[in-house]
Amino acid sequence: MFDVLTEYWPEFRSGFWVTCRLIVASFLVAMVVGTLVAAFRIAPNKWLQRLGGLYVEVFRNVPLLVLLFISYAGLRRADVDIGPWTAGIASLGLYTAAYVAEALRSGVFSVGKGQIEASLSLGFSYAETLRRIVLPQAFRTVIPPLGSLTIAMIKNSAIIGVSLLALPDILKQARIVQARTFETDVTFFWAAVGYLILTGAATLAFRFLEKRFSIAR
């Protein structure tokens, strides 16, 4: 079992770091876009609410694999010069952002309306109220669901390695090693270990954040 890992360690290590880069970049996209969409969803303007709702419904109900085909093959056929990295990060990030937005929206509802009304009465604009009062509290209440979404995103990243993008992530490299050695069980066992390391690290990180920013009740 360890012979395969030792012999093909460079391939497994390379795939692991590719997956790490993909996850970190996609997570940043998901958090930024998800926060913006959540702000739209709770804005007093109905058109912004509808725009945010449209985004959530589209990206939450279209499979990630379909988004990958659209963002890469579809755009390239439309003469848009987009690389596999950009397409992969954008697809995974925007897909996850729809779930992040809904998680944040639920967290916003946990903030008392009295705080929002008090902030507006003190002269803060609605945007300042969101940025300084509502969203910081909402983030604290939705740390556990955000952790679950991050773990799901890590597992969803495996789709990118086996799609037409063929980024050399853990699963892609495992398939290459399997084709050379025909050791299917051992090869994909080590691929699974790689994903377990990533999901385990994400779990520990969000548990730390949950304890660090827990709200005393």
TrEMBL record:
Gene3D superfamilies: MetI-like. Keywords: Amino-acid transport, Cell membrane, Membrane, Transmembrane, Transmembrane helix, Transport. It is found in: Cell membrane. The keyword Flavoprotein does not apply. It is a multi-pass membrane protein. Belongs to the binding-protein-dependent transport system permease family. PANTHER family: L-CYSTINE TRANSPORT SYSTEM PERMEASE PROTEIN TCYL, MEMBRANE COMPONENT OF AMINO ACID ABC TRANSPORTER. This is Amino acid ABC transporter permease. It comes from Solirubrobacter deserti. The lineage of its organism: Bacteria, Bacillati, Actinomycetota, Thermoleophilia, Solirubrobacterales.
